[in-house]
Amino acid sequence: MEKEFRTEHDSVGDLSIDSGAYYGIQTLRAKENFEITGTKLTFAFVRNVVIIKKAAAKVNEDHGLLAREKADAIIAACDEILHGKHRKDFIVDAVQGGAGTSANMNVNEVIANIAIEKLGGKKGDYSIISPNDDVNMEQSTNDVIPTAGKLTVLSLAAELLCELKKLHAALLAKAKEFDGILKMGRTQLQDAVPMRLGQAFRAFATAIARSKDRIETSLAEMRTINMGATAIGTAINAREEYFAHITEELARLTGENLQRAEDLFDGTQNVDCFAAVSGTLKALAVNLSKMSSDLRLMSSGPRTGLGEIILPAKQNGSSIMPGKINPVIPEVVNQVAFLVIGHDVTVTMAAEAGQLELNAFEPVIFYQLFESLRALTGAVRTLSENCIVGIEANRERCAEWVKRSVGIVTALNPYIGYLKAAEIAKESLKTGEPIKEIVLREGLMDAEKLDEVLDPLLLTEPRITHS
After folding, report:
1. Within a domain: residue 261?
2. Is 387 a member of any domain?
3. Does 176 lie in the same domain as 63?
4. Quick one: 191 and 48 in the same domain?
5. What residue spans of 362-417 are helical by DSSP H?
6. How far apart are CA 168 and CA 209, in angstroms?
C-alpha cells in the first residue's frame, strides 16, 4: 500500500509530509537539516516541553487569551503525549542549529495536529489550531527550551541522587563489616602505615556523600526559570496575565518550587547554571573513578597482586585464559567517568560561546548533560548492586601485608628520630629482620613500650604521642 502525503507550506516553500505523521513542515525540515548524532530528543526533555505547553494553554485559557475550545484540545493533546503516546513523532536530532527552535516546533506541531483531530479536523489544517499562534502563544523558543532543560535536569538528577544514596549506604555497610581488619595503607603505591580496611570504605562513602551534597546544591539554580522572557528578556508578546501566572502554573504541574528570574535578560542569555551542574557531575565522576581504580588495585591478583579484597565474579574475563575474572564493574564506572569529564568540557565551551542576548548552543549542552546524568545513574546503580554489596575481605592477605611491611617504623620517629628509624627500615628491608627485633637488639626502647608504640591497631587511630 502506497503512503499518502499531505502538503504543508511555510516561509521557505512547500513540502510533502506523510499524512499519518503528527509532526509538520518545520519538524521535517529540521530532520533533513540536522542528521547529526542519530540520537533523537530525550523523551524526558520532550515531556517537559509538553508540560510547559500545557501550563501555557491553561493560563491563556484561564485569562481569556485563548479560546476555551482550543485550549482544552491543546491540553488534551498534551496529556496524550505525557501518557507516552506519539513518541515516534518526535524526530529531530538532539543536536541542532537554531538554539532549540526545531525541538520547540516539533512539539508545537505534534500537539497542534493531535488537537486538530480532536476538534474534527485533519492534520495540517492549522486554521483550526496553529502551532505558532495557539500552541506557542505567549512563548518563545528562548524561554521554553532553557526552562525545559532545567526541568529535565531536575528529573534526571533525582534518579541519580537516589542511586547515590544507595551507594553511600552500601559503602557504609562495608565500612562497618570491615572495620576490624588491618591492612597496609599506601601512598604513591608504596607502603605507608597500617590502617583498617573499614576506614578505606568509609572514606569512599564520605566522598560520595560530599558529591551528592554538591549536586543537590547546584540544582537550586535549576528552579529559577525565564518563562515570560520570550525572545530576549523584554517579555515581548507576553501579556500581563500570562506573565504573572505562567511560573506558578508550571510549578503546580511539575511539583517543583520554581521562581521567575529577577533579571530575565540574564536568565535568557546566560547558561552558566548548566555548567555549574555539569561541574558537580564531573567531580562525582572523579570520585567514582578514583574509587573504582582503588577497588581494582585492592582486588588485583588473585595470586600475584594485592589481593586484599575479592570482588564479585560477574562474568568470564577472557576468551582465551580459562578461569580469569576481571573487575568489569569498576572498569565500566571508570569509562563512564571518562565520558562525563569529556562532556563537561563540551558543556563548558558551549556555555561560554553564547553571544549577546542568547546562547544558541543549548542543544549540545543538553545532549551532553542529559547523557552524563543518565550514564552516571546507570554506573552508580551497577557499582552498588553488582560490586560493592558483594565485596569480600581477604583477611589473611591483609594481615600478611601488614606483617611484611616496614611501614610501622614511622611510629618510632618521636622516640628514636627520623634518621635512626630510616636506618632500621633499610636494615629490615635488606635482611628481613623484623623492626621490633632490631630495636630491641640495639637497646633503643624497652619491650613493653615498643609493643605499645608498634601495635598496628592503635596506629590506625589518632593518638597523642609522648616522648
Report:
1. no
2. yes
3. no
4. no
5. 362-386, 395-404, 413-416
6. 7
16/129 same-domain check: yes
Rounded CA gap, 61 and 67, in Å?
A: 6
Could you identify the residue written with the cell 615498643? 450
CB 244 within 8 A of CB 138: no
In a domain, 255, yes or no: no
Spatial CA neighbour of 108 closest among 46, 150, 42: 46
Looking at the structure, tell me whether residues 387 and 413 fall in a common domain.
no
- pLDDT tens figures, 18-60: 999 999 999 999 999 999 999 999 999 999 999 999 999 999 9
Q: How far apart are CA 358 and CA 367, in angstroms?
A: 18
Are residues 350 and 440 part of one domain? no
Per the CB < 8 A criterion, the answer to whether 287 and 340 are in contact is: no
Coil, helix or strand at residue 110? helix
* Cα–Cα dist 156/395, whole Å: 40
Peptide bond into 302 cis (omega under 30): yes
Encode pLDDT of 165-214 as tens digits: 999 999 999 999 999 999 999 999 998 889 999 999 999 999 999 999 99
Integer CA distances (angstroms), 408 to 1, 182, 446, 454, in order = 82, 12, 17, 6
Active site residue 318: yes
* CATH code of the domain containing 410: 1.10.40.30
Counting the structural domains of the chain, the total is: 3
Cross-strand partners of 213: none
Give the predicted TM-score (pTM) of the model: 0.92
For residue 85, the enclosing domain spans: 5-137
Beta-carbon count within 10 A of 412 CB: 22
CA dist list (Å): 333 to 205, 400, 466:
16, 30, 45
Is 237 part of any domain?
no
32: its cell numbers: 533533513
**SS3 (DSSP) at 17:** strand
Calculate the alpha carbon distances from 233 to 262, 269, 297 in Å. Answer: 10, 9, 53
What pLDDT does residue 36 have? 95
Q: Are 168 and 209 in contact (CB under 8 A)?
A: yes
Give the domain CATH number at 120.
1.10.275.10
Per DSSP bridges, beta strands 224-225 and 259-260 are parallel
Q: Do both 299 and 413 map to the same domain?
A: no
* Catalytic residue, candidates 278, 318, 405, 428: 318
DSSP string of 301-360, one letter each residue: -SSSS---EEPPP-S---SSSTT----HHHHHHHHHHHHHHHHHHHHHHHHHT-BTTB-T
